[in-house]
């Protein structure tokens, strides 16, 4: 793809099995509750679509995006959540992410969401690179832990391309 070579590392079948496993865990853990899924765009759109159809609960979904901008002298790079048109006050929230790498994106997301006073927040990620984590994060739901490699496909991109594959590929 483009100037790089990738090979299949997680097959469509394995992804489906892991998505079903995680969806069953969420269905069990959230029995009697009506969670709001917050899917973080762009990368999570494929995962979120498959996950939601496997979750057997009354639930809502909202798609959010993180906007970065320069602004404060202290942090230098503040992230704002845009597009959240569901009131999450007092609601159980499940963040749906494609991949957690350093964890900084997720840490910012958690900080901002807590300001909206949800009942609870859990993180659900398709992929996690444990060796890259820079912050302590409680990731309750994870389909698969992977090594510190660059991956594309099933929603994840390389420079905007490669989101539309059924398998996940690793840069070789
Ligand atoms: P973090 O803040 O370092 O955890 O970065 C998370 C974001 O980086 C993800 O939502 C992805 O958009 C992007 N990312 C991290 N690793 C990869 C990868 O291997 N392939 C594609 N995108 C990645």
Protein traits:
172 residues, alpha/beta, Rossmann fold, 3 helices, globular, binds inosinic acid
Describe this structure in words.
- With 172 residues, this protein is of the alpha/beta class.
- It has a single domain, classed as Rossmann fold, CATH 3.40.50.2020.
- It has 3 helices and 9 strands, in the order βαβαβββαββββ.
- Strands 4-3-2-5-6-7 form a 6-stranded mixed β-sheet, sandwiched between helices. It has a 3-stranded antiparallel β-sheet with strand order 1-9-8.
- Helix 1 (12-29) crosses helix 2 (45-54).
- Bound molecules: inosinic acid (IMP).
- The site of inosinic acid has 15 residues, from strand 5, helix 3 and strand 8.
- Inosinic acid is lined by residues 43, 97-106, 150-152, 156.
Q: How much helical structure, as a percent, in the residues?
A: 10-25%
Report the CATH architecture: 3-Layer(aba) Sandwich
Radius of gyration: 16 Å
- Total helices: the number is 3
Tally the structural domains: 1
Q: Kindly state the mean pLDDT as a whole number?
A: 92
| Main sheet overview | 6 strands, mixed
Order of helices and strands: EHEHEEEHEEEE
Using the coordinates above, name the CATH class: Alpha Beta
How many E strands?
9
Quaternary state reads single chain
Strand content: 25-35%
Q: State the shape.
A: globular
Class by SSE composition: alpha/beta
Ions, cofactors, ligands: which are bound? inosinic acid
By CATH, the topology is Rossmann fold
Poorly predicted ranges (pLDDT <50, ≥5 residues)? Answer: none
| First-residue to last-residue Cα separation | 11 Å
Q: State the strand order across the main sheet.
A: 4-3-2-5-6-7
């Amino acid at each position: 793809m483009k100037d790089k070579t990738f090979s299949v590392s997680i097959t469509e079948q394995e992804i489906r099995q892991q998505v079903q496993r995680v969806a069953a865990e969420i269905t069990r853990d959230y029995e009697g509750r009506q969670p709001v899924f917050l899917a973080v765009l762009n990368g999570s759109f494929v995962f979120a679509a498959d996950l939601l159809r496997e979750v057997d609960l009354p639930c809502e979904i909202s798609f959010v995006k993180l906007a970065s901008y320069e602004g404060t002298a202290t942090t230098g790079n503040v992230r704002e959540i845009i597009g959240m048109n569901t009131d999450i006050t007092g609601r159980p929230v499940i963040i749906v992410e494609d991949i957690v790498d350093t964890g900084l994106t997720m840490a910012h997301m958690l900080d901002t969401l807590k300001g909206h006073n949800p009942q609870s927040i859990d993180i659900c990620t398709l992929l996690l690179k444990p060796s890259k984590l820079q912050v302590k994060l409680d990731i309750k739901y994870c389909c698969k832990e992977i090594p510190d490699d660059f991956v594309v496909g099933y929603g994840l991109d390389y420079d905007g391309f490669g989101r539309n594959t059924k398998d996940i590929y690793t840069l070789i």
